[in-house]
Structures are given as C-alpha cells and as structure tokens.
Amino acid sequence: MKNNKSLMRKAHFLGTKIRNLRKRNKLTIEDLSARCIKVNAEYAPSVSYLSMIERGKRVPSEEVLEIIATIFQKKPAWFLDDEKEEEAVTPIKKSIGGISGMALEPNFLFSNEILQIAIPEMLAQTGTTGRQFAHLLIRAHQEHHQNHFPDLERAAEQVGLKRLPLSLDDIIAITKNLGLVIKWFDKTPEGILASPDSYSEQAKNVVTSFFEPPNKIFVNKVMKKRQLRLKYDLAVHIGHCVLHDKNGMRNVLFAGQSPSDSWRERSDAYQTSIIDTQDILNAWRDFECSFFAGALLCPKVPFRQLLDSHGYEVNIGEKIDVSVSVAMRRMTAVSPYSHWHYFDAYSPGKLKAVYRGNGIPLPWGNMRIVEDPCQHWAIFRMMNTPATGSSSQISVMDVAGKPTIYCCESLNVKDIAGNNHVLCAGIDLNPAIEAQGKDAFALAEDLKDACVDNGGSVAIPKGIKSDLSSVAKILNINWVERGIEKDARMICSRGISCPRKPSCYSAGECLSEE
Q: CATH top-level class for 4-89?
C-alpha cells in the first residue's frame, strides 16, 4: 500500500468487511470509534467517518486502516479485495447464548394447571422456600434475556440523567426531590428481619437500611463510614420509590449471607406445601430495585465507554466511587459481548448472587451443600487461599459433552458484616474464538488434552496462546490477557465427572494445588 490511491483501487469490499467484523463482535460504531481512540488518538476516525467508510463513501488512510486492523487482529491487507472474507465472519442473527432449556414430554404433564399443583409439593419435599424458588425463576429470566432490561435502564437514566459519577450528595439530592426522608439508627428494630432461628451459624448479618412507608429511609449509622455501600442502598430505595410508587412494602437491605438461606437443616415448620405468593412478588421487586440501582450508579453508555477505555479492569469502581460488586455486575449488562457469568461466593459453598449469561454450570448451589465440588474453580481457590489483589484464570470444562474455554477474574473482599467472600466475573471464550473464524471446540479440545496430560493444569501451548491472545485484544479485556500468561486449569461441575487423571476424588479427597 504505497499511497491512498492504490488503497482506493483495492477497497471495494473494505467497508463491508469492517461492518461485518464490527457486528460479529457486537460493537456499535460508537464503540469502534472509542476503541480506535484508545489505539491511536491522533489518527482515530470519528463516528460519522467510520459510518461513511462502512457505507463505501470514504476510503480510510493507511493509518486509519492500521488502527482498525489492530482492533480486529487482522493484517491491513485482509481488508482489501485480494483477500476473501471468511464465511464465519458474517454476522449470525439471534445468537444470544445463555442457559438453554429442554423439551419436556409428555407435554400435558407440564400444563399450567399441573405445575401449579406439583410445584408447591416439590418445594415442600425438598425444603425449598418460595423465596428461593422465586430467585431461581428470576435468575432464569435474567439469563434468558442476557441481562437486558431496557425499561429499568430508561427509568434509572431519567432519574440520574446519565451522570457518571454520581456523588453521595447527588444521590441524597435525588432522595429529597422524591420526598424521601433519611433517618439513622444504631440498633436494628425488632421485626425487621426473620427470627434468629433462620440465621446461618457461620455468617454474620447486618441490616444496613430499610424503607418505612410512606417516605422514610432508615440507615444504619455504620454506613456513615461506608459511603460506597450507602450510595448503593440509597439507589435501591430510590428504585423502590420510582418503580413501585412507595406502595407500602417495607424494603430491607442487609450485608452478609441472607438470613432466609441458611445451610442449617430446616425444621418441620418449614415443611409445608403452602407458598406465600407475596414472597415471589417481593423477590422480583428486590431484583428490579437492585438492577435499577446499578443502572443509576453506572449508566449504560458512559460506563461502557469507561470500561472500554480501561480494559474492563474489575477495580474500575474506584474511579467512579462504586463498589467492586456493583461494577462487576454492571459489566455483564453493558458489555457488547454477551457471554458473561458473575458469582458472589461465601464459604463453605454459598452463592449469594449468580448470573450465567454464558450458561456455565454451577460449581455449587444454594439449596444444599455439595459434597464433591471441583476445588480448581478460581472462586474456590481464592476462597480457600485468601490472596491480596485479583486473580485471573483460564479454565477448560466439558459442557454438554463439548469442551469450553472460560476466563475469569476473582477478588477476595470482606463485607460490612465482616464475612470474607469472593467476587468473580468471567466470560465464555468459545463464541469469541468462533467470531474470528476459528474452530473453538477443536482449540478447546487441544487445550483440554494438554491439561489432562499434565495432571490437570498446563502452560498454554504456543499456538493456542496466540489464538487466545488475538481474541483477548479484540475483546479488550485486560484480565483475559493476564490469564493467558498463567497455567490453564481443567475444571468440572462435580467431582463425579472429574476429567483429570488421576481423578481428584479417586482417593476420597481433592488434589490441592498452590
């Protein structure tokens, strides 16, 4: 490419190739423009100029083409007429990922009438509360929609005006504009939480705030020294008032494990087939208010731009005065890449929060203790060996009989109640690999074999490392690049399906590493 004229003669398909790559990687033109600025601010094209390039109205300079080629990990010559576009690069419509359902036959057994009879009985026999069941329903709904709730986003944007960051003073001003009054308390009033019999023996719980109809927000005085949590609590209560019109429900927020989700064996009093439908409604409202709070504190477009400019580092919350958990959960909702998961895990094996937009199996659940969880999950390793800072990990796991490559970033933190817990955000890399025209399952199978041959973990082989590095640069997620520099690990959902040789549970206990 000696000059722009020679480039022009070979650029008939250049715009189409750029557009297909952009859509394949779920980027808007605004996203691509921001990425260009990050690579080279001096020659980065504007949104309008990128649009003209894609429509064939303009031919980019060599410098601009070099920037775009760097973003998509292609050689500049690939965009010219002499190079054919891989079939796999064309966008796939309606490819959303997430957890998948299954066909249930015979169909008549799963009619609404039969399910309404059978579900309460099933919950009673398993000791599952109506609220726990509601959380499963909400999580399935959330994952099915890939964390996409535009009505809640719009409601938050109308209140916060898309400001980033929102200071504590800004949040307090919003509460006053809504006619809310903030009161402080030293000791939690009686009747705010469930009876002490429902508390976990291992975990401590602290009521941080609660809403008292018609317009009072009561806040624990310990929150005066925890302003990030205070901002979140106030944002949740603002959401309750905006979305549910202060409808008289007492909304209680707390730190620590849920008092209603104890590992303790439930007494006979809990073994009932009666479901309180209000529990399900309240659980849904809790979810809506929590999502609203995240959208208020981290509005979608400006937060997405901030994440993009900082490579999706999990400590990004420090720059806008929000907690790590809020920032990590919002990543899963605002990222153009939809194949995310998020865990908030407490010892010995309690997931307080779960999101699986990429369909990753659970390492354990909330309903019962799992006897043989895989100890090689990053959250388990971080929990059992507390470490300072965050830790990235590339993992390989068989999902529905096919090997899948994941990368996650985990962080050990302590809540207001003094409980250690691990926050983990991660992605499924297979869709990103396929988006670049590679055979993701073949690559994952090769990495799996390398892990098994080396006792369960291995330095990523050079060829696989090169492919994953290209994908990491396109995704623009720094901790994926860091994970690639470490050993990849073979993990499983349960010890009974351990693929390692020898099996971790063959001798009755898990083989420890590090």
A: mainly alpha
Predicted confidence at residue 224, as pLDDT, reads: 93
pTM: 0.85
What are the residue boundaries of the structural domains of the chain, listed by start? 4-89, 112-263+270-294, 337-497
Buried b (16+ CB within 10 A) or exposed e, 99-112: eeeeeeeeeeeeee
Residues 203/257, Cβ–Cβ less than 8 Å:
yes
Cα distances from 316 to residues 40, 151, 325, 478, 513, in angstroms, run: 22, 25, 11, 12, 30
| Assigned fold of 337-497 | Beta-Lactamase (3.30.450)
- Cβ neighbours of residue 111 under 8 Å, at least 6 residues apart? none
Percentage of the chain beyond pLDDT 90 is: 51
Higher-pLDDT residue of 507, 65? 65
Contacts of 20 (CB under 8 A, 6+ apart): 85, 89, 90, 91
Cα 261 to Cα 106, 208, 350, distances in angstroms: 34, 18, 9
- Residue 221 C-beta-side C-alpha neighbours within 13 Å: 5
97 pLDDT higher than 90: no
Q: Within 10 A of 414 (CB to CB), how many other CB atoms are there?
A: 11
* Mean local confidence (pLDDT), 74-98: 63
